[in-house]
Structures
1.
Amino acid sequence: PFYDQASLVNQAVNTVSKALLEAFVLIVIVLMLFLVNLRATLLVLISVPISIGLALMAMAYWGVSANLMSLGGLAIAIGMMVDGSVVMMEHIFSHLTRPDAEHREYVKKKLAPGDEHPYDAAHDDHGMALRIQESAREVGRPVFFAVLIIIIVFAPLFSLEGVEGKLFQPMAISIVLAMLASLMVALIVVPALATYLFKTGVKYRESPVMRPLEKLYKRTLPMAQHNRKTVVSAALLLFVGSLVMVPFLGTEFVPELEEGTLNIRVTLAPSSSLDTALGVASKLEAQLLTFPEVQYATSRVGRPEIGGDPEPVSNVEIFVGLKPVEEWTSASNRQALQKLMEQKMSVHPGLLFSFSQPIATRVDELLSGVRAQLAIKLFGQDLDMLAKKGGEIEALVKRVDGTRGVAMEQIGGEAQLAIRPDRDALARYGIPVAQVMDLVSDAIGGRAAGQVINGNERYDINVRLGNEYRDSVESIRGLMLQSPSGAWVRLSDVAKVAIESGPPQIRRDDVQRRVVIQSNVEGRDMGGLVAELQQRIDSEIDLPTGYTVVFGGQFENQQRAQARLMIVVPLSLGLIFLLLYFAFGSIGQASLIMLNVPLALIGGIAALFISGQYLSVPGSIGFIALFGVAVLNGVVMVNAINQRVTDGADAERAAYEGALSRLRPVLMTASIAALGLIPMLLSHGVGSEVQRPLATVVVGGLFSSTALTLFVLPVLYEVFSRAKLAEQKRSA
């Protein structure tokens, strides 16, 4: 084959595999810096290969292939996979590093209240298994709910339909499977292995990263608690500021995947012959090969009628293989190279060029029937009016910034042999119209005249006039008919025979005639371009009654996906709220944790705005992932504060101590989730374009949500927990 997708698939898989490996290395570094203990680091890291292995086994069982999106899901989840294990390990670690006197008091209060001598064989000073059991029991419930929340967060992806569903459901499946596996590891494997790894105890070592952060947090948190209105106002101001950025983001369906191959569609005049098309194709190939960026150029002229996608010989498709971008000298990117190629090939008059990429072309054609990102469909009844108004829309679209490869599908120009019977002349000779049509059909198309039998094989015999009697208009005009009276009459005496221009084909959607103006998008977002086109067509094009314009292609997918997510994401957030309510038994505390969602939005929106990326379906999925991690941190924080309240501390003191005790796990989970996506964010390999918006949103959102979680949640804890605190006082 002259075009093989295998190299593209291998490169895309290598890109994701490399990102996974780099993310794993970064996670190792973060764990070592925070835990300062090799055994604890190894214990957390075990969750990554086990979770990935179990997820891959489940994917193989259910027939989910290892592709760019499914492996990309594992790359996204690698930071979240260790979240449950990090929280579990950090809590175990804090228990094991307690002084024995503190542990003794803990045993007296929690495990053996009223017993003066609770230290039997099961409760001795050095009972490491007991301490691990105590710590695992304390955080087991919040870890379960936190990971379950992350799984629920990705449920909306299963509701996507069409192309977006095919693209992102494998990602959702791999993430959910990996998170389920990580939950089992966090609740079962980590505590079990900890009893073996920490038999000899753990010596407390202060983390060089945590030392300055704890000092800073101890100083700033009380200030925040005493200036509650200022903190809340600042968070609210940041949230409003992020919402102001949203209209300036721009929207698109999915970022263009750089395939490393160009697909150039060349349209000749409809009446062009095969020899003409072959000659043009060879000349264009030679011109393309003069570019140093080009590895090969191969063309295909037309497609056979017997296939599922027939094309006339006037359509030439050229596949251009490109060298790696690092070796390019004529241009710095694909768009600039396409412009240079179009300029060079435009020396041939009467040719229409449309640039795309092989896979993108097929997907676009599948979506809208045209090989471009955007399809503007004009519906109406009269072909001449469709051609006229379609031409006006085509001219308008070409004048709009951000359009490339604008073209209207051919609605005329096909050379057709037209034979129009003269009914008056036929009546004079007594010849029926059917006789004229039969003559033309038999002479040019042929008539079945029997079969040749060769054993078990049968071959039809078709008879028609020789070439010299049907290869010109004059020859056809000279065909003879016999009248009922026996007189012979020339065809030209009873019919008008001429070559006329007509439509190559009449296309319909939903039983309506239509013409399509196609365009690719360059240098701006799809949503903004369509909005401008809609406004200008409405104001500048005067459409007759019964004629309508519909926008299709990727824009249609984008609108469908966004509409679906706008319904399903709030539903999943509502389900998460219910889970939080069941976990904490308080509407106020569930609402407090859900505050992390708008706090996470701040950084995600700002990251997209600063990086100049558009809000796309991958970006929306990034927000979904971000909500899960942000809520997880809130669960860990509020649970720790509640424990201090249960131990007898007042709300303000409990918020301070609980927040301080959870500083390390919150920073660890956030930094691991963010750094796990840094390789994908910085990657420029094949397929990275699709994953980059997602990584950008998560990394940016984690910065804002973590910073604000550490201050806003402790500050507002008392406000949102008044009902629960009052109930605890009454029960006491």
Note: The mean pLDDT is 84.
2.
Amino acid sequence: MRRYRKESAMKRGKRCGWTARPWVRAAAVGVVALAAAWAAGCGQQQLEEQNLALKKQIQEVQTVNADLQAQMDTLKAQNQAIQSDLDRARAAAAAAAAKTGAAPPAPAKPPRAKPEFGEGVETAQIGETTTITMPEAILFDSGKADLKAASKRVLDRIAAVLNKDYAGDKIRVEGHSDNQPIAKSAKYWTDNWDLSCNRAMAVVRYMVSKGIDPKRIYAAGYSYYKPLATNDTIAGRAKNRRVVIVVYP
């Protein structure tokens, strides 16, 4: 009788075991599915955050480009207005000379061709004034005023053009910064005035070493007071950290 009861209990246990196993497996599958869904949700959130950050950076760059295009359009309009004024002045002088019998004044010099240097260097021509703008990344490491070795290749080309095509003209080398306080390089510079002046002087000294007459070149530091773009964005601050060579009669 006891043997029968034992065997019956074993059979009932087997039946209960076989009945319970699918529930256990279903619960395990549910837990795994929930974990996978949670992980997928986290990954999707990270991708969305990265996508939003990239979109924000793209918008900032587009804003800076729009500002630069507007500045270029303004400069072109000013150049055209200056040229129109010159044409009217020459015509008036010629008419006055014809009435008095005096020789007309010598024609104005033709506008200079804008030099091109590549490698991220931007040039502009307004009348007889030429500007050559070089971003910080071409010339210096962040917070430093020592010229990079690679920058000297660009400066050599600029010096050659200034000696050949702009002989005798005055040259002002301007240092510009963004509005971020001096932090990591505080042991070298007091403030952005100090940094921008020393960067301009580094370029002046190198240009003199390449044959530029020291009597016609000088340095000026403007700190962050002559920005090209907003200092509220990374792209704008990068645009403002620059050295500008201004050449004029």
Note: The domain at 117-248 is CATH 3.30.1330.60 (60s Ribosomal Protein L30; Chain: A;).
